[in-house]
Every structure is written in C-alpha cells, then in structure tokens.
Design goal:
The protein has 209 residues and is of the alpha/beta class. The chain is built from 6 helices and 13 strands. Strands 1, 4, 5, 6, 7, 8, 9, 10 and 11 form a 9-stranded mixed beta sheet that branches. Helix 3 links the parallel strand 4 and strand 5. The longest helix is centred in the first third of the chain and has 19 residues. It is globular, with a radius of gyration of 18 Å.
C-alpha cells in the first residue's frame, strides 16, 4: 500500500509558513519553493543504494562510498511543478528532466493532457514526479499512469501541500506509489482548492495572479 510521508522538518515547516502568507511576493515564493524542494529531496533520496570505491585521501588509501549508478529523472507536472526542479537539481545535477503538461478544466476540475516529453531511458530511472499541490489528485493520477505506460516502475510523488481527498485518490489508483509532502491540510473547498493551502501555486510562482 502507498505510504504517505509528511516531511515536517522544522526548516521545511518554517519556510512553508512563509509561503502560505498571502503577502509573500513571487520572488520570495519561488526561492522558498526551491529551498523546500531541496530539503525534501534530501529525505526522498535517503534510500539510494551505495557501493564501495577505493580512493586515496591526502593522508591514506581508503574504501569510501558512492551512489551505485542509480539514475534519476525529475518530472514536473506543468506548470507549477517547474518551481521544484531547480532545488532537486542542486542535489542531483546529473538527473535528467522530463515534462508532463496537464491543466485543470475550470468547470469540471478534471485534468487535461497537452504535453509529454520524457528522457529516452526513463523506464530505467528512479522518477521523482513533482507538483506543489495535491488537491483532487486527478493530475497526479493521470501523470503517474502516463509514466507507467512509458515503462516506469520506480516512481515517487513529491508535493508541497496535500489534501486528504488527493492522497486518497492517489493511494486508490496507484497503491504502489509513495507520496512525499511537506503538509497534509484540512480539506478541499467547493472550488477544489486546498484549505488552508496557499492559493494557486502556479500563479504565485510566475506572478500571474
């Protein structure tokens, strides 16, 4: 069964509180999102396998550790997911980046696909699917299905704020996918926005409010 990981490190909690504040401008919002993504990525990659290598320090030879060739891919759901890519790439500069384009129909609140471009060897990589908000779960579920249809089998979903309804939808549709979030909020409102949430993440990232 899918596991929900709430990464409530004090630095993450503090930075998320700043992001929630409606007075926080786009520049600071983007910077905070990148910082939180990097902090969350540190926890999300904790189980990457290591292997021994022989090196020589300025003092002596030794057996050291390195990540054992595990390839990563970062796949943001456009457009808001783009705001989390730089933070993760600071941790793993060699990770390849794909893009999945989905938008939410304003009437039905269901996702509509318009773009998908992934690394050619994406099925061989550990894929980190990122989107700041997990609201209804529709976009996340569709994106996960798209990745599985491309042969991906090692996928982790990372978001900033999740609603219980979205978590339930992902866990029911994709019980093999773990969810990593900085906060589990109260509910969705009648417009399918997370409460208390932080508003429309894409608008706040790109200043299109």
């Amino acid at each position: 069964m899918s596991t929900l990981h709430v990464l409530d490190h004090p630095l993450i909690v503090h930075k998320l509180s700043l992001m929630r504040n409606k007075k926080t401008g786009s520049k600071e919002f983007r910077e905070l999102l990148n910082e939180i993504a990097m902090l969350m990525g540190y926890e999300l990659t904790r189980d990457l396998p290591l292997e021994d290598i022989e090196i020589e320090t300025p003092v002596a030879k030794m057996t050291a550790k390195k990540i054992s060739g595990k390839k990563l891919a970062i796949v943001p759901i456009l457009r808001a997911g783009l705001g989390m890519v730089d933070g993760l790439q600071k941790l793993v500069p060699v990770a390849k980046v794909g893009h999945i384009g989905l938008y939410r129909d304003p009437e039905t609140h269901t996702p509509v696909e318009y773009y998908c471009k992934l690394p050619l060897d994406v099925e061989k990589r550990t894929v980190i699917l990122v989107d700041p908000m997990l609201a209804t779960g529709g976009s996340a579920c569709d994106a996960l299905t798209m990745l599985k249809n491309k042969g991906c089998h090692d996928i982790r979903f990372m978001c900033l704020v999740a609603a219980p309804e979205g978590v339930k939808a992902v866990q029911e549709a994709h019980p093999d996918i773990d969810i990593y979030t900085a906060a589990l909020d109260e509910k969705l409102n009648e417009h399918a926005y997370i409460v208390p949430g932080l508003g429309d993440a894409g608008d706040r990232i790109f200043g299109t409010i």
